[in-house]
Design a protein that fits this description.
Helices cover 20% and strands 40% of the residues. It is built from three helices and 13 strands, in the order E-E-E-E-E-E-H-H-E-E-E-E-E-E-E-H. The strands form four sheets. A five-stranded mixed sheet has the order 5-8-3-2-11, with no helix packed on it. Strands 1-4-7-6 form a four-stranded mixed sheet, with no helix packed on it. It has a two-stranded antiparallel sheet with strand order 9-10. A hairpin with a 5-residue loop joins strand 9 (148-158) and strand 10 (164-174). Helix 1 packs antiparallel against helix 2.
Length: 242
């Protein structure tokens, strides 16, 4: 049985204020009668296998099985450390190449700060179809990633007449190696789930690993309630100024 690589487009991203995100991707697949196997590409290793969802827009087909294989942290860091050492030498020697220095610095920075969460997981989906047809396949998963989050931002413009204009907005911080630019929404949500402990890693400081989310058990609010948090931030700012 052949395995077809499938890289569905990111259609929705909901970023959490306490870190992490809900990713939704969708694309069209060609189903043959019987068993079909798809390998989903570009899923970060920081995703949670327990929260993955797969949906098919077909009554004649259903998901038979999902196989998930995440990279072993110990092996990943054995590869990352030598790359970090190499970047130091490249940066030092790049002083002789001022024309390409900026491009080299950007590449080296990405390599130097790469982490386990920037690696890819392997996800295979088995679909059993009664007929041959084209169907949409939607996949959702949660990223346990504290390098992507949002925070409220308040800007006060003082006018000449003594009044002030207060602008409340949100700033998205994304320090991962993955860029998201489609249908981004924000939500107040604390995952509150314990990240599975990686295999023992020697000579790795705790700061190199993804710290488990803190806070109470999972509690969430709809994105429509973001304004409430921003207004609370504004009220706090007013109290400080008075």
């Amino acid at each position: 049985m052949s395995i077809e690589s499938f890289n569905p487009k990111v259609t929705s991203v909901i970023i959490f204020d306490k870190g992490g995100a809900l990713i939704e991707r969708e694309g069209m697949v060609q189903l043959v009668k019987g068993m079909n196997t798809f390998r989903i590409e570009d899923i970060p290793a920081s995703f949670s296998p327990n929260q993955i969802q797969v949906e098919l827009n077909s009554e004649d087909a259903h998901v038979q099985q999902i196989d998930i294989k995440k990279p072993v942290p110990e092996f990943v860091y054995e590869e990352i450390r030598p790359r970090q050492e190499v970047t130091k030498d490249i940066i030092d020697k790049s002083r002789r190449l001022p024309y390409k220095r900026q491009q080299l610095l950007e590449l080296c920075e990405s390599m130097y700060y790469s982490m386990y969460q920037d690696e890819f997981a392997e996800v295979k989906i088995w679909v059993d179809s009664k007929t041959e047809k084209t169907s949409s396949l939607k996949i959702k998963y949660i990223l346990f990633e504290n390098r992507i989050y949002w925070e409220p931002r308040v800007v006060i413009d003082l006018l000449d007449d003594g009044n002030a204009v207060i602008n409340v907005s949100a700033t998205i911080i994304n320090n991962t190696n993955f860029a998201y630019d489609s249908n981004i929404a924000l939500a107040e949500f604390d995952l509150g789930l314990e990240v599975p402990s990686p295999l023992p890693i020697t000579n790795v400081t705790p700061s190199e690993l993804l710290p488990p989310p803190s806070g109470p058990p999972a509690t969430g609010k709809a994105p429509t309630q973001i304004r409430s948090q921003m207004m609370n931030e504004l009220q706090r700012l007013k109290m400080v100024m008075t």
